[in-house]
Amino acid sequence: MDSMLVFDRRAVRRHRDRAAATIGSVEDLLRDGAERLLDRLDDMTGGFSLALDVGGRGVVAPLLRARGIAVVSSDLSEPMARLNGSAVVADEEFLPFAPGSFDLVVASLSLHWINDLPGALIQLRRALRPDGLFLASMPVLGSLAELRTALTETELSLSKGASPRVSPFPNLRDCAGLLQRASFSAPVVDMEEIVVRYADPLQLLRDLRAAGETNAVRARARGTAPTELFPSALAAMRGDDGRVPVTLRLAMMTGWVAA
């Protein structure tokens, strides 16, 4: 059973606990991703009265309220949950919500550290009422590709092997299959790509830490990384303009609950 567990959920919680104090420094990027996801509501007929915000890090709930939608927020981390005022501390793999509690569920960049993602999606579908809508975004293959390649190649040049230092991401086409497996109706998945260019390459690592996105892969190296690893890898990532480009490829997932 343990061999099927890719992520260290205790580490995920610790990272989010720590990031609650620094999340403001990456709020603009998180809001950009959330707004891109919520733009899909503009194409929907009818309204939504009560939404569940899953792991929105204090960004999603205000955007939903600005649309006139009441919100219940949940987060794995208690300090992160407090950013939403009144919120539920809940593990996404063991959600406490009764069937049919919401008519909208939004999970913006909050599902990619879950071991049992199919099971979590099934629970989220059950929490929706008939005709309820599920909206989610998550990084897919190609996200942080520049960082993954640079770290792997640099570590191989410094030692006899390379540790997984960037989370594995699903293929875009796998996301539609996940929605179908969870019995969502009319599943739609498309992709948004965001490229951020850093003048200070170390700022990339600071931003990942500030967002609670540091490495929580169970197979990660637990010792101290070689001193030269990160400076050398980041230097290798510099483009012709001297900046470090980082690509985020986000699957935008939409699914309905049949009436």
Secondary-structure topology with pairs:
Layout: H1 9-19, H2 27-38, E1 50-54, H3 60-66, E2 70-75, H4 78-82, E3 87-89, E4 102-108, H5 117-126, E5 128-139, H6 145-158, H7 172-181, E6 185-198, H8 201-210, H9 229-236, E7 244-256
Parallel strand pairs: 1-2, 1-4, 2-3, 4-5
Antiparallel strand pairs: 5-7, 6-7
Characteristics of this structure?
Rossmann fold; seven-stranded mixed β-sheet; single chain; alpha/beta; about 260 residues; 9 helices
Oligomer: single chain
Quickly count the helices: 9
What CATH architecture do you see? 3-Layer(aba) Sandwich
Number of strands: 7
Biggest β-sheet description:
7 strands, mixed
**Secondary structure category:** alpha/beta
Helix content: 25-40%
Task: Write up this protein.
This protein is an alpha/beta fold and 259 residues long. It has a single domain, classed as 3-Layer(aba) Sandwich (Rossmann fold). 34% of the residues lie in helices and 23% in strands. The chain contains nine helices and seven strands. It has helices at 9-19, 27-38, 60-66, 78-82, 117-126, 145-158, 172-181, 201-210, 229-236; strands at residues 50-54, 70-75, 87-89, 102-108, 128-139, 185-198, 244-256. Strands 3-2-1-4-5-7-6 form a seven-stranded mixed β-sheet, sandwiched between helices. Helix 6 packs across helix 9. The longest helix has 14 residues, at 145-158. The chain is globular. The two termini are 36 Å apart. The model has no long low-confidence stretch (mean pLDDT 92).
